[in-house]
Design brief:
- There is one protein chain.
- The chain is of the alpha+beta class.
- The chain folds into two domains: 1-74, no CATH class; 85-148, Nuclear Transport Factor 2, Chain: A (Roll).
- It has helices spanning 2-20, 31-40, 91-100, and strands at 22-24, 45-52, 55-62, 65-71, 77-84, 105-114, 117-126, 130-137, 142-147.
- A nine-stranded antiparallel beta sheet has the order 1-2-3-4-5-6-7-8-9.
- A hairpin with a 2-residue loop joins strand 6 (105-114) and strand 7 (117-126).
- The longest helix has 19 residues, at 2-20.
- The radius of gyration is 19 Å and the shape is elongated.
């Protein structure tokens, strides 16, 4: 009985996720939006399009880093997330990490731009069990911190 309940829950979750984000054929994406994307990211690989509500989301790799961009139906980018290297972090953030998180190593960084502001989600690790997820603004202010 327990396995049946788990299977039902898993199928329900899958169904809910499918309703909110559905992979779509690139030919279903408005031509102006697809052309704009292809012009801006000619080296993109592993391109996948999704429809999330009224927004088009494209996931792709560029220079071995993952990217996600959300577009309105008329082709305006409303949000962008992409991986960056620790070396690409603003100096203000690296200074805060050095002083407030001594001994931690940057594991990964995701840069998010939305509504004209940019945040950096930095995963820090120290040893095998000490991990933190810290979100910074561009000037190095800690916006949130979570211990993993």
């Amino acid at each position: 009985m327990k396995n049946k309940n788990l299977a039902t829950i898993a199928l329900t979750i899958l169904g809910v996720c499918t309703v909110f984000a559905q992979d779509i054929n690139p030919n279903s994406v408005p031509a102006n939006l697809r052309q704009s994307f292809e012009q801006n990211y000619p080296q993109a690989s592993n391109v996948e399009w999704e429809l999330e509500g009224q927004s088009y989301k494209v996931e792709f790799d560029n220079n071995r880093l993952e990217h996600e961009i959300w577009y309105t139906t008329d082709g305006i980018a409303t949000k962008a997330e992409h991986e960056i290297t620790a070396a690409d972090l603003p100096q203000a953030i690296t200074a805060v990490i050095a002083s407030n998180y001594a001994g931690y190593k940057v594991d990964s960084v995701e840069k998010t731009t939305m509504d004209g502001s940019t945040t950096y989600d930095v995963e820090l690790e120290k040893g095998w069990n000490d991990e933190r997820d810290v979100v910074f603004n561009e000037s190095g202010k800690v916006l949130s911190e979570m211990i993993d």
